Amino acid sequence: DGYSHLSAYERKRLKNITENAKFFAALKLHESAARLNQIATKRQSHVTKRRKPKKVEDETARRRSMRLLRVEPLDIPLLETPAQLGPDPYPQVPVGPLPMVPEDQAENRKWTEALLSTWMRISELKADDADRGTPDIKRYQESLSSMVLSEENIRKVVKARVCSMAIHPSESTILVAAGDKWGHVGLWNVSCRSEEGAHIFIPHSFQVNCMHFSPCNPAHLLSLSNDTLRCGDVTRAVFDEICRSEENFSSFDFLEENASTAIVGHWDGGVAVVDRRTPGMSSELSADIGFRRTRTVHVHPVNKQYFLAAGSVDVCVFDVRYLKAKGNKPLSSLPGHTKSVASAYFSPVTGSRVVTVCADDKLRIFNSKTIQVLLIFKKQSNKIKTHENSQPKPGWAIWDPKQEHCFLVGSMAQPRQIQVFQDTGKLLHSFCNVDCLGSVCSINVVHPSQNILVGGNSSGRLHVF
Prior knowledge:
With 465 residues, the chain is an alpha+beta fold. Helices cover 14% and strands 32% of the residues. Residues 41-62 are annotated as: Disordered.
């Protein structure tokens, strides 16, 4: 065979190789491989590389949503020139006095005149000072139980969230003022019981942080916005401008019974003294009290030279007679607050108590004479509701002006309610109505002599018990 020189193993191996070669040759795999190689080579010749786009200096703008660009849909022909924007729904209010003309003056002129004439008439009547003593707790609790809420005493008075309220001291007519976050002031004659009993005025450009009827002349309604303090004088039908500043006002209170001077708090922590009798629109004094933020200021009901300021974690008592531009030291501090303080108020008759609301969900009662913490209690139902803006104003706890030892606070408990507490921490009463009250009333005001409570919510609606 020509392979005789090979060993038996080598011959066996060579035979296997020869048989395997014949087997693969019968399969004709080399022809298939050649054909596939030909096809691949043919396709490869037609493959062309994608040409890189030339770099353009002025690239076209990236496509953006027409909704975000505030562009009309394509089926509406677009103007070649940019369309002129319509009038601002909340225009800036001019500086200086403003006429007391409501938003709907043209439509309801006679109803507006009726509202303002009612305000003027009830302001001329002097309130009866008889029986102004603080009632005992039992009688007071009975009076609370007699107060109810009905559908006719619920009304949307302003367009947006209620930031402040005031109630006229009249004993014959219920007149309520509410300020919202757009600078609107709504006046509602609750006793009118008609759709035309409420009207909206626009004396401010920013949210109305604080409002008070003048204690000596309720024909004057003072309202404080971020940039200005105004006095609505119904006898002259004008909103006068008392003070203007760029320091962002937060709250104010009267330093005298004649309401000629006021202490004003600033969001950036300072305070200012304003005198209505002096010309110009600047404050008499601007003082740094060492606060990062001042949310509320409140004057002592008896000793008017003392005022209470509440801010970030600070609650301090100052003497207005010794205020200066810098280096002010408090007479006393109310300690223990670990988070932001929403409000702090003296009790209404003697000022011997102070109630504070803190973002740690705690209500604190202090003895203002000894600066001693009398009570700290925490209830989940009193958890503070913080509004969505850069300068949050949580719910306030306010004293009932008719009762030295009781205060009210809006609650987030279900059903929604406004709770009345004694300064011992005892819950005396809960104002609620499953059918009529379904929202949190974080801003509340109580009539100084009548059994009337008004709660305002985040939609501009007022509820009168």
